[in-house]
């Protein structure tokens, strides 16, 4: 998948991969080993959550419909403004 396609499809995963993180696919471990995995993941929890939040906010901002990027929204904003005057 091309970088821009991946970024558009899943901006959070893209941002995390760009920061050097990789997902752990389905792994087989013993129950007594899960604590080790959690300990390792906990070390990065704050940074991962910050990256997730920033990527999500950025994606949402880029997806907002505004009068500048949508003809129908522009017309609706115009009609709303006319109704107020």
Structure description:
- By secondary structure, this protein is an all-alpha fold.
- The chain has one domain.
- Helix content is 68%, strand content 0%.
- The protein has 5 helices and no strands.
- The chain has helices at 3-9, 11-18, 34-43, 45-63, 71-84.
- The protein starts with a helix and ends with a helix.
- 4% of the residues are buried.
Arithmetic mean of pLDDT: 82
First and last CA, distance: 50 Å
Q: What amount of the residues lies in strands?
A: under 5%
Spans of at least 5 consecutive residues with low confidence: none
Order of helices and strands: HHHHH
Gyration radius (Cα, Å) is: 21 Å
Largest sheet: none
Overall tally of structural domains = 1
Principal-axes shape call: elongated
Number of helices: 5
Helix content: 55-70%
How many E-type strands?
0
Class by SSE composition: mainly alpha
Descriptors for this entry?
mainly alpha
Secondary structure elements and pairings:
Blueprint: H1 3-9, H2 11-18, H3 34-43, H4 45-63, H5 71-84
Helix pairs in contact: 1-2, 2-4
In short:
This protein is mainly alpha-helical. It is 68% helix and 0% strand. The chain has helices spanning 3-9, 11-18, 34-43, 45-63, 71-84.
